[in-house]
Each structure stands twice: as structure tokens, then as C-alpha cells.
TrEMBL record, chain A:
This is Mediator of RNA polymerase II transcription subunit 18. Component of the Mediator complex. Gene3D superfamilies: Hypothetical Protein Pfu-838710-001. The gene is MED18. GO terms for molecular function: transcription coregulator activity. It is found in: Nucleus. It comes from Amborella trichopoda. The keyword Nucleus applies.
TrEMBL record, chain B:
GO terms for molecular function: transcription coactivator activity. The gene is MED20. GO terms for cellular component: mediator complex. Component of the Mediator complex, a coactivator involved in the regulated transcription of nearly all RNA polymerase II-dependent genes. Mediator functions as a bridge to convey information from gene-specific regulatory proteins to the basal RNA polymerase II transcription machinery. Mediator is recruited to promoters by direct interactions with regulatory proteins and serves as a scaffold for the assembly of a functional preinitiation complex with RNA polymerase II and the general transcription factors. This is Mediator of RNA polymerase II transcription subunit 20. GO terms for biological process: regulation of transcription by RNA polymerase II. It comes from Amborella trichopoda.
């Protein structure tokens, strides 16, 4: 399972966010370029309809493929109280013929996206990953060269950390605590509950830009 | 990885596979100074599509096979015979398939036994049983030639080994013989060097033969 929150930031403030993340994490950023294909089960297939994502990492010289299944979010009054979404996710590396495999299994392409951005991986109580993503759609099937932004001028920020049934409370606390550092730049909330931009962003970004990078908090 | 040929026991018409055959062929390997090593095991599952409405059409593969090898515990292989497709994945792909609830495991088979070292050859004798059952469904034999990973370059020496082996087994007058059916690997997009995908495809070919002989 994973603990996850998301937020949005204007592209003009991404550099400031990067400086902040660099300072907080103390690790170098990693670039990513991922072609994501969302597949849904055919009309009569399966006890329930299902969805699976194929991720093709284009950042490496030889593209590598991963299958990702995002399960249901944790429910109940306890989960409602949490500021972080706790959900099951399972990933598996697969060979490059995975798309053919799922098509043969009766899955259909629902949509595809090109996600480009950078991420920081670091340990702060939990193994936290922060991704800053520009999401693009393809006007023509699979033609990633012609991808255009879905939300021009806006990027998605996601903070996530792997957890288990035994430790998710600590991981939720770690993610929540980390999000407070980012609060001057963006609101982070459960996926599907985006709360918009923060009014302090311009001032906070200007301050960060003037201080520059390299400060480990 | 070393090249591998998979052979299976084909019983004579009107006879069935029994554990005595496995004992005898294992003694054959030991008789030619095969050094008995540890146990080995592979697990094979047949997945069947789940139709929400049994009366409505289902536009997908009806079934496919999944196989995992003890030598490669972090990987799992799915084979779609109709589409000539073999997928290599991390072993937790099985957990994803369970969560999707679009296919279910209809039957699981264990293939297990002992391995024997014969110079540069590694021979694995295995019985095929349904998981949680002891009923023998088949006998398989893996022959690995350790120095070579090319199917083409090893063809001659593998053929010679299998010819000698067949001769040895025939002296026992057992009610059947070992068969080697080489799949058309290129149809699956597989070429040299040899890989676990090749082994997965060989198991599919053998399973079809075993199921046919069980039906007959």
C-alpha cells in the first residue's frame, strides 16, 4: 500500500519548489519521462470491471515497462480523518510486450498520457517520493512527439510513500509532516480533492529564489 | 543461461503413467553415474477468463498459462499460446492478476523432483502433480548443457545426448518413451541466446501433450 497526497503549482513557481525540495531532501533530483497507458477491462470480462496502467519509462536508453494496479482507498471513519490517502498499489516490471498481452486478455486502451518531470527520493521517517509532473495528452495514438499539455502552465505535485498495514499510521504522519514544509507553495490533499493554489505562493517562491538552493533544512 | 531441452514421458497407447516409471528412469540417470543433487520445483497455473454474463460474448483469450521457476524466484511468466506471446514479469504480477479479477486460476500444477549432474549436463527428473494432490499426471525431464547458451550451437550435442538417453531407457522395456518437441521459438519472438522465456514456451508445449494424453 501507499500513502499519497497531491497538489498543483503554476509552472512559473516550479523552480522555487525544486529549490525547496532540494534543500529539504539533500539529494539530487531525477528526471522522468513516462508514457502511461490506462487500460480498462472489456465489457464482459471479469467479476467486476477493472483498470490497469502500463508505464513505459522513456528516460532510459532502453525503455522499460511496469504494470501498475491502483486498488481501492482505505475506508471507514478512521480513514476519513486522515489527511493522506492510504490505498493499495502493486507494481510489477514486465517485458516490452505487456501491451499486446493485456490487449489479448481483453483490455482496451482508455487513455494515454505522457508524464514528464522530476522527482526526489529520500528517507524522512518513511521513504518519501515527491514528483513534479507536467501531464501531456497525445492527439494521435501513441505519437508522444506530438504530445500537448493537458493543463498548460500547471503542474501536478505528488508526495507518496510506501506503507504496510502495520506502519501506515507512522507513514501518514511522516507524509503530513513533510507536507507542512511545502505549505507556503502549495496545498496538498487526497487525490481527487484538489484544493487549488495557495495565495502565498508568489511571495514564498520569490523568497526561495532569492535565497537560492543548497540549504538543507 | 545454459540451453535446455524439455522432454516428457509419452506412455504407450492403453497404458498410464505411474510412479514406477519415474523410479526406473531416475535409476537410469544414476546408472550412468549421474550425481544426485538437490530438489527442484516449478509451478504452473492455468488461468481462465471470468465472464460477467455467461450468455454474452467474451472478446479475449479464454485461458493462458503462468509458470514460475525455482531458479528464478523473482520472475513469473505468462504464455498466451494462441497469440504466440510470452510475457516476463516480476513475481508480484500474480498479485495484480488476482486483484483485477478478470481471470482466475483454474488449476495449478507442481513439477518437482531431483536433479543430477552428468559432466557438463544437468538432468532434472520431475513428476507433474496437481497442487495439494499426489496423483501423478506426467513425468518431465529437463536436460541442460551447461557450457552453451545457444540453441543452434548446442543442437548436435543435445541430439546426441538424447539419442543415448533414449537407447538407455529403451533397454528397460518401459511402457512408453521420452519425447522432445521443440516449439517454434521464433513465432514467440524468441531467438538465441536461450532464456527462461524459452523454457516457459517448452512447458506450454509439453502441458498440451500431457493434457491430451490424460484425456485419451
Amino acid at each position: 500500500m501507499e500513502c499519497v497526497v497531491q497538489g498543483i503549482i503554476e509552472a512559473q513557481h516550479v523552480e522555487a519548489l525544486e529549490i525547496l525540495l532540494q534543500g529539504l531532501s539533500g539529494v539530487p533530483r531525477e528526471h522522468f519521462k513516462i508514457h502511461e497507458l490506462c487500460l480498462k477491462s472489456g465489457p464482459n470480462l471479469g467479476a467486476v470491471s477493472s483498470e490497469v496502467r502500463l508505464l513505459c519509462n522513456l528516460e532510459r536508453p532502453e525503455p522499460s515497462w511496469t504494470v501498475r494496479h491502483i486498488g481501492g482507498a482505505m475506508r471507514g471513519p478512521g480513514a476519513e480523518q486522515l489527511s493522506v490517502l492510504v490505498r493499495t498499489t502493486t507494481e510489477s516490471k514486465v517485458s516490452k510486450n505487456a501491451l499486446r498481452f493485456f490487449y489479448a486478455l481483453g483490455y482496451k486502451l482508455d487513455h494515454e498520457l505522457l508524464k514528464v518531470g522530476f522527482m526526489f527520493h529520500f528517507h524522512r521517517v518513511a521513504l518519501i517520493t515527491v514528483t513534479v509532473t507536467s501531464t501531456n495528452k497525445m492527439p494521435k495514438l501513441h505519437v508522444i512527439e506530438e504530445a500537448i499539455p493537458v493543463t498548460p502552465g500547471m503542474q501536478l505535485v505528488e508526495v507518496s510513500a510506501p506503507a504496510t498495514a502495520d506502519n501506515y499510521n507512522e507513514v501518514v504522519a511522516a507524509v503530513s509532516s513533510f507536507c507542512e514544509y511545502l505549505a507556503p507553495l502549495l496545498h496538498l490533499s487526497k487525490p481527487g480533492h484538489l484544493t487549488g493554489l495557495v495565495p502565498t505562493v508568489a511571495a514564498a517562491a520569490a523568497s526561495l529564489m532569492s535565497k537560492g538552493s543548497g540549504q538543507v533544512l | 543461461m545454459p540451453v535446455k531441452w524439455l522432454l516428457h514421458w509419452q506412455p504407450n497407447a492403453g497404458t498410464t503413467i505411474n510412479s514406477q516409471v519415474l523410479t526406473e528412469v531416475s535409476q537410469c540417470v544414476e546408472g550412468i553415474n549421474g550425481i544426485k543433487g538437490g530438489r527442484w520445483k516449478s509451478t504452473l497455473s492455468i488461468y481462465k477468463a471470468i465472464a460477467r454474463d455467461l450468455n454474452a460474448p467474451l472478446e479475449c483469450a479464454r485461458d493462458f498459462l503462468g509458470i514460475s521457476f525455482q531458479e528464478q524466484p523473482n520472475k513469473h511468466y505468462f504464455i498466451l499460446r494462441g497469440q504466440r506471446l510470452v510475457l516476463e514479469a516480476d513475481s508480484n504480477i500474480q498479485s495484480i492478476m488476482e486483484k483485477l479479477q478478470s481471470y482466475r486460476t483454474r488449476i495449478s500444477l507442481n513439477i518437482e523432483g531431483f536433479q543430477y549432474q552428468l559432466g557438463d549436463f544437468l538432468v532434472k527428473m520431475g513428476k507433474v502433480v496437481i497442487t495439494h494432490s499426489e496423483n501423478l499426471r506426467g513425468i518431465v525431464m529437463e536436460v541442460e548443457y551447461l557450457p552453451i547458451s545457444s540453441l543452434e550451437k548446442s543442437r548436435q550435442i543435445m541430439e546426441e545426448f538424447v539419442d543415448i538417453w533414449q537407447e538407455l531407457v529403451s533397454r528397460k522395456s518401459l511402457p512408453g518413451h521420452f519425447m522432445h518437441i521443440e516449439p517454434n521459438f521464433s513465432e514467440y519472438g524468441l531467438s538465441d541466446p536461450y532464456s527462461f522465456q524459452h523454457t516457459a514456451v517448452q512447458y506450454v508445449t509439453v502441458m498440451i501433450q500431457l493434457m491430451a494424453s490424460v484425456r485419451n
